[in-house]
Amino acid sequence: MNALTDAERQQLAVDFCGLQLATPLVLLSGCVGFGEEYTRVEGFSNHDVGAVCLKGTTLEPRLGNPPHRVAETPAGMLNAIGLPTPGVDHVVHRTLPALDFSETRFMANVSGSTVEEDAEVTRRFDDSPIDAIEINISCPNVKEGGVAFGNDPAMSARVVAACRAVTDKPLITKLSPNQTDIADNARRCIEAGSDAFAVINTLMGMAIDIETRTPVIGNNQGGLSGPAIKPVALLKVHQVHQVCKPHNIPIIGQGGITSARDAIEFLIAGASVIGLGTALFYDPLVCPRINRGILDYLQQHKLSGIHQLSGSLTLNTPPPAPCAGG
Q1: Of 152-156, 197-201, 298-302, which gets the smallest average pLDDT?
Q2: Is 69 helix (H, G, I), strand (E, B) or coil?
Q3: pLDDT for position 323
Q4: Tens-place pLDDT, residues 296-324
Q5: HSE value, Cβ hemisphere, 13 Å, CA-based, for 299
Q6: Are the beta carbons of 49 and 100 closer than 8 angstroms?
Q7: Rounded to a whole number, what is the distance in angstroms from the first to the last CA of the chain?
Q8: Is 287 designated active site?
Q9: Of 1, 207, 234, 270, which has fewest CB within 10 angstroms of its CB?
């Protein structure tokens, strides 16, 4: 695929929380390791993406969940990896120095099991070259913290406030779709100091082996990702955008994006940038194709940049209510 011209790169460039991203694509936490895995793939380049979100990090090392950790499902994938990590000190002192920050932006993912742990991990990332910090309050694959934080708006706000108190770096709150009112949760997180949102994390799901009559996933349940969740993710991005728009709060739209058309739908719904995850597992070179497709759309519709597309959804006029008695 032809390299992007300077003019095309200018069209794709995005301002995200004061960070200049070269393209609107963000590689999602848990899908690209600690930033180095996909650089081993021939033809892959971090120059094609605006940012890379590193794997979830806890205060101490952890091994994660027992196998099986991944299972393919119709139009998607279940995973219950369980946040294996070498711990924050290893990431800050050994992993980050090995990354090339001239290629793209790098975001940390904080995945503690208590409010205090989230705050401490955030504090240690604050004293590092990391560009932004994502707070994972919505992971369905750990028994403590995780989704329990993300489904309780008051607890979500507590986590955000604690992390806000220890860093001036941009804070991105990763929201769960497994809750009653995602817009109310977003509102409370904005009040607590969140600078941006990642919408959405995986949905909770299960797969069953009919021969053994046991769950396929060792953790019994896991997070469902991939094209199967795209309609849900689009709606959640739209709902959160209604809360974020008055405050100019950006959103990483994510959930089942595999093509430029998918990415454009998320931008129209209210996303500022696009998160890629499951698609990378079967097509590691999808990023330049999505960039090219977005560019073609911008040029076709005579738009100068992503900012003119983001949040441009026009809702249908609802039909009149039926008369009483039919």
Answers
A1: 152-156
A2: coil
A3: 60
A4: 999 999 999 999 999 999 999 877 666 65
A5: 12
A6: no
A7: 58
A8: no
A9: 1
φ, ψ of residue 255 to 5 degrees: the values are: 135, 90
DSSP per-residue letters across 214-279 = EESSTTS-EEEESGGGHHHHHHHHHHHHHHHGGGT--EEEESS--SHHHHHHHHHHT-SEEEE-HH
Distance of alpha carbon 234 from alpha carbon 270, whole angstroms: 9
CB atoms within 10 A of CB 323: 6
Bridge-based pairing state of the strands 273-276 and 25-27: parallel
How do residues 226-258 score in pLDDT, each as one tens digit? 999 999 999 999 999 999 999 999 999 999 999
Q: What DSSP state is assigned to residue 85?
A: B
- In sequence order, which residues have a C-beta less than 8 Å from that of residue 321 and are 6 or more positions away? none
The band of 141, judged by pLDDT with boundaries at 50, 70 and 90, is: very low
d(CA 314, CA 270): 11
Scan for tokens 């974020």, then name that residue: 244
Q: Is 175 left (phi over 0), alpha (psi -120 to 50) or beta?
A: beta
Phi, psi of 203 (to 5 degrees): -85, 155
Listed residue (125, 99, 97, 129) closest to 111, CA to CA? 125
67: which 2 tokens? Answer: 């196998």
Segment 188-202 shows an average pLDDT of 97
Residue carrying the six token digits 């990023």: 287
Distances (CA, A) of 313 to 49, 247, 261, 325: 25, 18, 15, 35
* Catalytic residue selected from 17, 31, 53, 139: 139
Q: What is the largest CA-CA distance in the chain?
A: 71
- Please state the length of the chain: 326
Verdict on whether the full-model pTM lies above 0.85 = yes
**pLDDT tens figures, 12-44:** 999 999 999 999 999 999 999 999 889 899 999
Rounded Cα–Cα distance for residues 31 and 21 (Å): 19
pLDDT at site 2: 73
In three-state secondary structure terms, 167 is coil
